[in-house]
Amino acid sequence: MSETFNQSTNRIGLQPNRLFQCCAMATIAWLGTSQVYANDTQPQRLDSVVVSASGFEQDASQAPASVTVITRDTLERENITSIADALARIEGVNTRSLDARDGKTGNQTISLRGLPSRYTLVLIDGVKQNLSATVAPNSFGDSQSVFFPPVQAIERIEVIRGPMSTLYGSDAIGGVVNIITRNPGVDWERSVTVSTQQYQSSKFGSVQTVEGYAAGALNDMVGLQFYGRVLDRSASNVRIPGTTPSLTDNRTMGQNPTQSDVYTFGGRAVITPDAQNEITLRFDTTRQSLDNSIGQVGRLNGVTDTPASYTRGYSRELEFERDQFRIGHMGEYGIGLLETSLTHDKVVTKGRTINSGAVPDASRNGTHRTLELKTLVLDTRLINEFDDHLVTVGGQYARPKFEDGILPETLKREQYSVFVEDAWSATDDLTITGGLRYDKYEDISGEFTPRIYAVYTATDEWTVKGGIGRGFRAPLMEQSTSGVNGFGDGGSTPLFGNPNLNPERSTNVEFSVQYDNQDNFAAQATVFRNEIKDLIEGGTGANSGQDINVGRAVIQGLELSAAYRFLPEWTLKANYTYTDSELKSTQPRANLAQAVSSLAGDPFVSVPDHMLNAGVYWQTTPQLETFMTAEYRSSAFRPRNFHEPMNGGNSQGLAGPGHRDSNIVLGDFKGYTLLNLGARYAVNQNVTLNGTLTNLLNKDFIDYSTYDRFDGGTAQSNAYNNILPGRGLFVSMNVNF
C-alpha cells in the first residue's frame, strides 16, 4: 500500500472524486479496520472511526479482517517512546519479549495472536520494514524496531490481527502493523516535543527524547515534510543478587539495557503537477549505538583469552544503521487508479568482528565483520470499480543482496509476486472479499496464498463477519544457504543453513461479532484458530545444529473488547485476550546431554494464557483529562531449554529428575498486574503537558531464586520472563507553533 494512499489529509491540489472514494474503500478492505477501541477518550461510532487513504471516513465495521486503529490523539496522551509502547494495550497484542534471551538491545518487539515477533509484518506507509536476512545476528533483531517517527508525524497506526499474506506476502502470518504518517497540508505547522522517563530506583536507566516536526506547502504544486527524533537511554544496573560483573560473562540479553542513543530523521516532498498525478520523494534514516565497553551485549574480542585469540566476535560499541529512499507515483486514469513505487533499503550492523576459525584466512581473525543488506523493491497496483466489484491487481519485484564477512560469497535473491483481490457487494447487506497471491523466490518453490472473507450487516447495530486465509513466511537468505551461516554462544559456535528449507505456512480461520448502539457503547468478540506447519528450527550457541523444517503448531483464542461512555465525561474501556497454543510436533533431542527442547503438547511460545487491559478516562475539565490504566498478564510457560538471560544466555545445567528441563525444575513464569495513573493538560492551544506515573504500585520484577546445577554448583533464575522497571514518572511537553 502506498504512502499517499494511506494518508488522512487531502493531497495538495488534487480534488477527491468517486473513483478515489471507491479506491479508499478498497484500501480499508485491505487493512480491515474493525474499531478504534482503546484509542480516543470518547468511544466513537464504529462507522466513522477510520479515515481512508484519500481522507474520507469509512464504515470500519465492513472491513474483512480484525483490526484496531490507534489515533494520533492516543499517542499524544500516553507515554509513547516506541511502536511497542503504542500497541501495548490492544487485544491480541503482546509487546513483552516472549523469550528474554532475545532483545539484547533492550528494544521491545510486537507479538500478534500468540506468535513470535518474526511473524509480525511491520510497514511504514505501506513500506515493508521486515528484513530478508539476519543483518543483526545473535538475537539483535529487535534493533530494527527503533525507527519510530515523531508522534506529530503519525496520522494513525493500524494493527491487523491474523494472516495477510494475500496482500503483503511473506512474514504476515501473525498480522500486520502499518504506521501511517501524515501528508503535508497547505498551511505550515511545526511542533517540538520533549519527554523524560525517570524511575524511582537507580537500577533502571532513564530515557529522554526530543522530537521535531514541520510540514506545509512550498507552493501550489509542492508540499514538504521533515521530522526528527533523538532518544537517549541511560544504562541500567540490574544484577543477580551476589554477583559481580566481569568481562567473561557480563551479558544480560536486554534484561539490563546498556546505554544507547537513537537518531531518526526523515522527510518527503509531495508533488502534484496536475489533478491526475502525484509524485512522492521520501527518505528515512536511523542510527542506534549501544555501549559494549565491558561486554554488556557481547563478549569482547581478545580481552578474556590468554593469549588473545579473537574468538568472541564483538567490539566495544555496536551500531545499527538503516537508510531508506523511495520514489512513488499515483495517477488517476480511465483504467482506474494506478500506483507505483521504487524503494531502496540499506541496513548495516557495525561493531561485530570475525571469530577465530570462521574464515580460512587466519589473518582476518578479530577484524571487522561486514553485515550489510541492500534491497531494491518495485511495487505496482491498479484499482478499478465495475458493477458491484472493486478489483485490485498488482505485483512486486524485489532484489535483496546480503553480505556477511563470514560467508564465502555475497548472497543474492530475486523474488516476484502477483496478486488480485475483489470486494464484491453481493447484496446491500453482504460483502464478500476474495483474493489470491503468488510469490516466487529464486531459491524457494512458488507459494500461493488465497483468502476469502464475508461481512454481513444484520442491522444498524449488529455486524457479523468471518473468513479463512493462508499465510507464509519465507526462510531468511542465510537460512537457505549451505554450510556455516552464523555463530552462537557469544560468537564462538558455528551454526548451519539448509538449502532444502520450505517456507513456514499457516491457515487461519476467524469469526467476529460486532455491536455498536450508535451512541455510547461498542463491543466486539472474535474467535480465531491458526495452524502453522513446516516451522523452522535451528541450532543455538549451546547446541550447534542445522536449520530444518520440523515443527507444527496450533494457536487458537478469543478476543473481547468494549468501550462504554457511562457519563458525558467518563469513559471505560477494556479488552481481554485468551490464547491457547500447542506444539504438535518438534525436533527430537539428539542425546541426554543436550538441553531439552520443546516437546509435543507444549505451548508454542511463552505467551500468557490470559491478558487483560482496562482503563477509565475522565475529562475533568475542557483542558484537563485524567486516566488510570491496568494491565494483567497471567503466568506463562517457561521453555524447557530456557537460558537465564542474566547468565549471558548460558544453558541452565539443571539438576534433578527433569535433567536440563527448565520448566520442571523452575516452573512457569509468574503473572503480574500493573497500574498507571496519568493526566493531560492543555495549557493553551499551542502547549500541552502530559504526565504518567508508571507501575504505580511499584511492582518488583527482580525475583531470583537459587537452584542446583547438574555439575554440582548453583545458579539463580528470575521468576518473571521480563524484568520490567519499578515505579517511574513520564513527563512530556508538546509545543506547536
TrEMBL record:
Primary location class: membrane
UniProt name for this protein: TonB-dependent receptor
Annotated localization: Cell outer membrane
InterPro entries in alphabetical order: Beta-barrel_TonB, Beta-barrel_TonB_sf, Plug_dom, Plug_dom_sf, TonB-dep_rcpt-like, TonB_box_CS
Top-level taxon of origin: Bacteria
GO molecular function: siderophore uptake transmembrane transporter activity
Keywords, in A-Z order: Cell outer membrane, Ion transport, Membrane, Receptor, Signal, TonB box, Transmembrane, Transmembrane beta strand, Transport
TonB-dependent receptor-like beta-barrel domain span: 273-696
Transmembrane segments: none
GO terms under cellular component: cell outer membrane
Pfam families for the chain: Plug, TonB_dep_Rec_b-barrel
GO-annotated biological processes: siderophore transmembrane transport
Domain TonB-dependent receptor plug: 60-176
Similarity section: Belongs to the TonB-dependent receptor family.
Residue span of motif TonB box: 48-54
Membrane topology: Multi-pass membrane protein
